[in-house]
Structure formats: C-alpha cells, structure tokens
Amino acid sequence: MTNPQKHQLEVKNLSFGYEDKKLLQDISFSLVPGQIKGILGPNGSGKTTLFFCLSGFLKYKGQVLIQGQEVQKLPSKKRALLLSLATQNPAFPEIRVKDYLLLARFPYLSFLGQYRREDFLFLEERLKEMQLINFQAKNLAHLSGGEQKQVLLAKILTQDTPFILLDEITSNLDPKICLQILKLLKQKAKEKNKAILLTSHDLNLAAQLCSELIFIKKGKIIAQGKTKEVFKTEILEEVYETQFKIYHHPDNNIPQALLGF
Q: Which of 146, 145, 150, 127 is nearest to 137 (CA)?
C-alpha cells in the first residue's frame, strides 16, 4: 500500500527565531499534489520567513518533509528538483529573459554540464504559456515590475518541480494578467498535479484560488482548513484587527471579504 506521506510536503512543529525574538512557533500543516493552499496574514506575521524555512535556507526546529525526506538534509540539487520558490522582491540581474529562464533548468544538467534539447523545448513552451515570446531577448532588469513578475513565474514553471512556493506572486499586476495567472495555476494543479503554496494580501483572490487556507499572526497559526470553513468574519478580524463583512460570490458561492467601515 502506498504511503501518502511519501508524496506530500509535511510540516511538523516548525519553529524559528533568534535569541530575543520568536518568528515562527509550532507551525504544522501538509500540502498534497494537486492542491493550492494559501497562507494569509498581516505584514510581519512570518509568511516569508516560513517560505525560507520550507526551502531549507533557514535553520529551523521541527520537521519539513518533502516526499518523506527532511529538507535540511537534502543536497541542494535534489532540493531544486523537488521544490521551487518565487520570492517577493528578488534582485533581477542584467540578463536576457531567455537566459534567466534557462537557469531554472540547471538542476537537470547532464553529467557533462550541458543543457539538453528537451530543456530548450521546455523553455520555449513556458515562454508561450506566459505570453513572453516577444520578451525573450529583452534585458530582464529593464522590464516593468509586472513584466518581471511574469518572468519570475515563468522561471518557476521552467524549473518544473512538484512543489511550488509563491510569495506574493500577483502583487503589482493588473487585473487581466492576475486573472491569467490564477487560471494557469489552477490548470497546473489540476492537470500537472502540482502542489502550490502561496501567500497573498489579496484575500478575495486567495479565497477564489485556494481550496484551503492557513491564517497566521505573529508567527502562530490562528486557523486553518477548507476555505469555506475558515474564511469567516471572526477569523479575519482576529488576524487583521479590523472589521470585515463577508458575502458570497454570485458565480461560485465562494466567500469574499469587504472592509467594514
């Protein structure tokens, strides 16, 4: 019988901090293939720190298991084949868009350190998918913030890992591009069985996109569960310390939030 834990990302009692300050305390949850899960909370709640822990960049207490393997013990190349991270404010180098995306295929290099024909074909598909064909020869550092965000997501998709972490990937994007990305992420989860964990300050977008939500505040989980069960007035007001009113979207009955003035 197959052990389901061998195919998921499992976080057990994760804590992180410094001598004078705890940033994350006893965080536990799981992420399974085909699922999109959101982590919501105010600025400074620990969302980005959590993502750096999950990626193995920060030394934490507790466990982060990827397909049953402790992330802190994985070689960097193996980790890069399993999990990809799009950070909130990356430094974009002076490099062509196409060359930047090609860096995402580095974990797949042959023994001789060469890219394969399949790598270039896969990259070409991602450029088309993200509508970036006309941008491939442009200097990444000279693109607009929204265009850079699209390239960043294209790089994550080019890396082609089973687990994807997206930190504020839709911030500063116009509604049209934001909707395209939302549909694409849903497609990747459904058709390619990708497991996606994301953060967002757009509560309503997160509710539409994610089947489950985790609310954190000051490094602690306040609530987690299915979106329709935890996207509630009392939880939102506890986490964000302001008034909300909840209504349900007329097309799909998913809860949405309005600030209560």
A: 127
User: d(Cα 80, Cα 140) in Å, to the nearest integer?
Assistant: 22
pLDDT tens per residue, range 135-145:
999 999 999 98
Q: Measure Cα distances from 173 to 23, 169, 178 in Å.
A: 29, 9, 6
Query: Could you tell me the CATH number of the domain that includes residue 99?
Result: 3.40.50.300
Contacts of 154 (CB under 8 A, 6+ apart): 101, 126, 127, 129, 130, 132
- pLDDT tens-digit profile of 155-175? 999 999 999 999 999 888 889
The pLDDT tens digits of the residues spanning 35-59 come to 999 999 999 999 999 999 999 999 9
Domain that holds residue 244: 4-259
Q: Are 60 and 14 a contacting pair, CB within 8 Å?
A: yes
Residue 26 backbone phi and psi in degrees, to 5: 50, 55
CA distance linking residue 158 with residue 156, whole number of Å: 5
Q: Based on the structure, what is the number of domains in the chain?
A: 1
CA-nearest of 233, 56, 190, 162 to 223 is 233
CB atoms closer than 10 angstroms to residue 79:
20
What size, in residues, is the chain? 261
Secondary structure of residue 19 in the 3-state scheme: coil
Residue 3's pLDDT is 56
Distance from C-alpha of 170 to C-alpha of 172, rounded to nearest angstrom: 6
Determine the Cα–Cα distance for residues 84 and 159; give it in Å rounded to an integer: 7
Specify burial of residue 34 (Cβ count, 10 A radius: 0-12, 13-18, 19+): middle
Stretches where the chain sits below pLDDT 50 are 1-2
